[in-house]
Amino acid sequence: MRRRFLFVRNRKAATGLVILGIYVLFAIIGPWVAPYDPSARGNDLVQGPSSAHWFGTTHLGQDIFSQILVGTRSVIYVGFLAGLIATTLSVLIGVTAGYLGGKTDDALSVLSNVILVIPAIPLMIIITSILENASDTLIALVIGLTSWSWNARVLRAQTLSLRRRDYVEASRASGEKTWRIVIFELLPNLTAVIASGFVGTVIFAVLSEITLAFIGITSNDGWNWGTVLFWAQGQQALGQHAWWWFVPAGLAIALLGTALSLINFGIDEFVSPRLRSAGTTKLKTASGGTVRMRIGFTPVLSAPREGK
Amino acid sequence: MDPILEIRHLDVDYGLGDRAVRAVRDVSLTLHRGEVLGLAGESGSGKSTLAYGLTRLLAPPGVISGGQVIYHPASGEPYDVLSLSDNGLRQFRWAETAIVFQGAMNSLNPVHKISTQLTDVLKAHEPSMSEHTRQARAREMLKLVGISPDRMDAYPHQLSGGMRQRVMIGMALILQPQVVIMDEPTTALDVVMQRQILGQLIELRERLGFSVIFITHDLSLLVEFSNRIAIMYGGRIVEEAPAATLYRDALHPYSKGLLSSFPALRGPRRELAGIPGSPPDLAAMPAGCSFHPRCPRAFEPCSVTIPVLGRPDATGRTVACWLHPSADAADSPGVSVASGEH
After folding, report:
1. Which of A14, B1, B197, B336 is in the most buried spot, having the most CB atoms within 10 Å?
2. Which contiguous run of DSSP H or E holds residue B284?
3. So what's the pLDDT on residue A5?
4. Does domain A3-294 have CATH number 1.10.3720.10?
5. Option in A277, A283, A305 nearest B16 (CB)
6. Residue A298: which of B11, B17, B56 has the nearest Cβ?
């Protein structure tokens, strides 16, 4: 309870969580609260923001605000599903390779190295363009399956260093089963790496999906921020000075990235006790002054000596 | 003898406000030029906290809540270490006061040669020194601590624990500090190595003339190597006397308990006795003398009033115990200040 409270008390993490919470909320209710059908054509063509169309309209008179709202679901869904797939794979492959070593390690390392050097975006373009009408789930799957290798390598390195620690050796010597050592001794130590890897992959997946949509590889009927940018680009929004067409989508992407990064910082400080104590350096004294706690410079309280 | 480091009424807390735990209480101690001052006590008696506090190296949540640490440099005016600026403190450390930590041998970076780590200090404190002079100085330092200079390019894992510890002692002495604080520097080593290193240290001290504050829980070591011994209990100094005097005739029951917990090599056989009970909880100290619940000779003032350090006789030794009331309460500064407080 206290630990959870601590995490939320961290200002960065709390800000990130609030922003992400709003996105998730819109991902769920977006299609229901959207004022218009995002694909429905209207009579106001390429109009600037107004009370009827908050973010203006497209060349077909579609409401951009509705497109952004409806598109949130696809972005969040693909981002988190891909992040989940990639993180699961990276934990399975990285920790297994690091802990078991030997031939298993060699084989799994070769696999991650091969995946690592394959350029992800072109591969995604090839895979998704072969498959007709790529659904969100399929895109998430492709992104997840191609982006796990970096984290797997990080986890393998970390596991290699952890498996020689005394407490791991001790549990091995006392006959603990391998799965138990991995789950109870190793994984808690890897939490920070796994969590930040997950958040990083979500950011990467969101950007990948938007990139794919931007170059036109997406499901035919769905909307996401990349699709909005695709049409804005195709209709030369910049040339028409229709800034409302691409700025909202861009800001939405930037804000989501910021929120996830803030959560990442929060996780780092939360999981690593050393960073945590470094986080709260300014403390109030009984007499109302503040002291700065720093390693190597013990503060001297200048309060007058009182009787004991 | 002139003093080099005077600790005056130092208080060190862990935490702030109501939750603060006072780990060092009203400690006054003087280190004289060229002497070895031993600091002994059980685990949790505040010896390490005192050493880290006076150098301001205590990690959060440690704070110094009162007192002064007056340092007398070789030339120039004495100053209070606790009021130094960050930069002043950086200059002061290592050049004036060096510290060898508990398990210091693990402080060596495994990926750098020991020569690099030795010359690093010189680079930071004496940037004008040439690379050649630095190397020569490091080599000389290794020779001083009894390591062959051809080990300069060795990595820490290629040296034994004792050698690494000696490298750390050499590193502490490389800027020729006036004061060296040693916090259980030999605890992790075997007794043979312990003796060898301490013998070397005493020899070095005679040659270089620095003063040592030596912290240990091993009183038998101190009796042999130090000039004066201060015994700490529950964050206070309870007795301070020349080593030989303390060994022959300890006044405080706690010092007696510590001394009777190890056997003498010669002399009649005697019963080895430990001290019953366990160290006090610093957050809930007993009233009066903090040792009275464990003291075999406690009587009624012990549980009521805190005894202050006083001089029981004319020899200059001090003890804080009601069994040995101060002979000259009037001119003992420790008593007058402290009694004004309680």
Report:
1. B197
2. none
3. 54
4. yes
5. A283
6. B56
In terms of DSSP bridges, do strands B3-14 and B62-71 run parallel, antiparallel, or are they unpaired?
Answer: antiparallel
Instruction: Give yes or no for a contact between B155 and B113, defined as CB atoms under 8 angstroms apart.
Output: yes
Residues 6+ apart with CB under 8 A from A114: none
State the pLDDT at residue B186.
79
Question: Omega of the bond prior to B253 within 30 degrees of 0, cis?
Answer: no
| Rounded Cα–Cα distance for residues A190 and A198 (Å) | 12
Cα distance between residue B32 and residue B205, in whole Å: 13
- The answer to whether residue B144 sits within a structural domain is no
Give the closest residue to B35 by CA, choosing from B194, B174, B209: B209
Domain residue limits at B72: 3-96+177-331
Report yes or no: A161 at the B interface, CB cutoff 8 Å.
no
What is this model's ipTM? 0.70
| Number of other residues whose CB lies within 10 A of the CB of residue B323 | 16
Cβ within 8 Å, pair A286-B65? no
**Count of Cβ atoms closer than 10 Å to residue B263 Cβ:** 10
Asked if B341's CB is within 8 angstroms of A308's CB, the reply is yes
Q: Kindly report the pTM of this predicted structure.
A: 0.69
Longest dimension (CA), chain B: 67
Extract the tokens encoding B99: 């510290």
The total number of structural domains that make up chain B: 1
Q: Average per-residue pLDDT in chain A?
A: 80
Question: CA nearest B85 in A: which residue?
Answer: A297
Instruction: Kindly tell me if the per-residue pLDDT of A1 is higher than 50.
Output: no
Mark out the alpha helices in chain A (DSSP H runs): 2-9, 11-33, 64-100, 102-117, 120-130, 136-146, 149-162, 166-173, 178-180, 187-214, 225-234, 243-271, 273-279
Per the CB < 8 A criterion, the answer to whether A216 and A130 are in contact is no
What are the domain boundaries of chain A?
Answer: 3-294
Q: Searching chain B, which residue's CA lies closest to the CA of residue A304?
A: B66
* CATH number, domain containing residue B216: 3.40.50.300
User: B248: how many CB neighbours lie within 10 A of its CB?
Assistant: 11
